[in-house]
Structure formats: structure tokens, C-alpha cells
Design goal:
298 residues; mainly beta; 10% helix
Length: 298
């Protein structure tokens, strides 16, 4: 089934390059204001985009912007749409307090907006903007909006703390605590906690295609990390980074690469403080307490 949506676009006034497209909720066309347009560096237009199939690669810059909106509105889950070639379609944009513009025009924009009593700030130069400038996810808390890109998938009950980071085509599938890095392709299951300073290898890490995830009721400890998937009710102790090739001693004494345990349930990954060996034992007796429900409601 095809998807058709109407949005509002800003383009560079001289080159015609697409800077951004906003698709308002409900599919109702709406205009926006940007000082960059008033001073002549940007032009705006209403655009209609049709996607015949989300399995097909994006056909235009406007097409990419619609797909990012679909992810952030939780209408499509991460890894359930084709994003092939998006970096070549998206424009690198200076996201300024006066509206989007090409990076080569920032100095000119700074000069032009001074006449409108505006002190220009440029929080980012990137292909992706902040999620919250385009989509307001319901029932979600975000401590630092600069650390969540458009295309992040955050379901109600998600809390992203100030040090947390969520990239595009990644996010949560249920209430979760995000204090570490959730990179492209990665999903976090309900009632799981990505601890402060932790990291999960995504599909852009080294150009890999392996899609990692965290299941339900699991904990990735502070300053830890994974290059494998965690199943349900798993724990990675604080400070331990488990890559696919990490040699792990199982409960029966067998030593295997961690990739062989990827996605398994009820495991506690820990480093033996005497031998230094990474071990995978049952997590049944290591209840980490779960999420604080008061932090993940409303």
C-alpha cells in the first residue's frame, strides 16, 4: 500500500537544494516561519510525496524526510523500511536559530539577521536535525534534545536522560531508560535499561550489516557495551564491553565467542575479578531491580 503525505519544505534560494521537509501530524498542510526565508536565503514550498513501497529505496530527498517522520511518529518500526542511499540524498545543513541554511551561507545569514535584532546561534551542522524540531513523541521524556536525531523511534514510557543518545532508525519498543548510545538499527525492548556511558554497536559501526538489539527486562550496565544482541532478562555488568569475538566462558565451562550467545535469554555477562575471564552465567539470581515506574509514566 502506498503512502502519500503533504509537507512544507525549505530550499536554498540560490541552488534549490532541499534543506528540510516537515510533515505535520494528521496530513494537514501547514506553513512555517524562518528568518532565513525573510532575508532571502531560503525559499519555502508545499510538497506532496508518494512512497509506493517502503521496501523500495528512497527516490528523493523529500522521500527520505517522510521516512524519518514515519519512524519518529512510530508508524514504522526500525529496520522495517528501506533507507539505502539516504546519505547521498540528504543535504548537509546548518541548523540555525534563524532556520536551516547551507553551511556556506552561515556568515551571510549572521550578517543579514543582525538587522532583525537576532543573534544567530548554530547548534548543529549535520544531515539530520533534532527530533523535537519536527515530531513531539507522546509520553516520552528527553533530557537533551540535541542528542536525539529525527528518525529515532521512541514509544510512550521512554526516558532519554541527558547523556543518552538515540540515532535514526533506532530506538525503543516499550518503556525504557536510555542513558547510553543507541546507534542505527538498534532496538531496545520494554522495561530495559541502557546504562550511563554504555554503547551498542549499530549497522553503521565499521559499515557492518549485523543488527543488534536488547530484549525485554534487560540491563546494559554503566560504561559497558555490546556488539551482540541481548535476549530477555539479560545483564551486562558495568564496564564490560562484549564484542562478537569476545571469548566467553559458559556455565558448563565451555569457551565460545560471544556471537554464539547473541540473542540468548537469561544471561549475566561478567568479568571474573580474579582470572579476568569473561563469563556468561544464569541471571536468575542477579535481579537488577527493573525500571522505576514513576520515571516512565506520563
Amino acid at each position: 500500500m502506498s503512502i502519500v503525505a503533504t509537507g512544507h519544505s525549505f530550499r536554498d534560494a540560490s541552488s534549490g537544494d532541499v534543506l528540510d521537509v516537515w510533515f505535520p501530524p494528521g496530513g494537514v498542510a501547514a506553513n512555517r516561519f524562518a528568518l532565513s526565508e525573510r532575508v532571502g536565503l531560503a525559499a519555502s514550498a508545499t510538497v506532496t510525496v508518494e512512497i509506493a513501497s517502503l521496501d523500495d529505496a528512497p527516490a528523493s530527498t523529500e522521500d527520505v524526510w517522510l521516512r524519518l517522520h514515519l519512524l519518529s511518529r512510530c508508524e514504522v518500526a526500525p529496520n522495517h523500511l528501506n533507507l539505502e542511499g539516504i546519505f547521498g540524498l540528504l543535504t548537509t545543513v546548518a541548523w540555525t536559530s534563524a532556520g536551516p541554511c547551507l553551511p556556506t551561507h552561515v556568515d551571510e545569514l549572521r550578517s543579514l539577521v543582525a538587522g532583525h535584532d537576532h543573534r544567530l546561534s548554530v547548534p548543529s551542522i549535520d544531515k539530520f536535525p533534532r527530533l523535537t524540531d519536527y515530531v513531539t513523541p507522546p509520553g516520552v521524556r528527553i533530557g537533551d534534545a540535541d542528542r536525539v536525531r529525527l528518525g529515532a523511534h521512541l514509544v510512550p514510557g521512554t526516558t532519554v536522560m541527558h547523556e543518552g543518545f538515540v540515532n535514526f532508525n533506532a530506538g525503543t519498543l516499550g518503556p525504557a531508560m536510555i542513558e547510553g548510545r543507541v546507534t542505527p538499527g538498534v532496538t531496545v525492548g520494554a522495561n530495559s535499561d541502557v546504562g550511563a556511558g554504555s554503547s551498542i554497536q549499530g549497522t553503521l559501526s565499521g559499515g557492518g550489516k549485523l543488527v543488534n538489539s536488547i530484549g525485554q527486562n534487560s540491563l546494559l550496565g554503566a560504561n559497558g557495551g555490546i556488539g551482540i544482541s541481548l535476549g530477555d532478562r539479560c545483564i551486562v555488568e558495568a564496564g564490560l564491553y562484549v564484542t562478537a569475538g569476545t571469548k566467553v566462558c559458559t556455565a558448563d565451562g565451555e569457551v565460545v565467542p560471544a556471537r554464539e550467545l547473541s540473542g540468548a535469554n537469561d544471561l549475566l555477562f561478567r568479568r571474573n575479578s580474579q582470572s579476568g575471564m569473561v563469563e556468561a552465567v544464569s541471571s536468575a539470581n542477579s535481579n537488577w531491580g527493573g525500571l522505576n515506574n514513576d520515571l516512565h509514566t506520563g
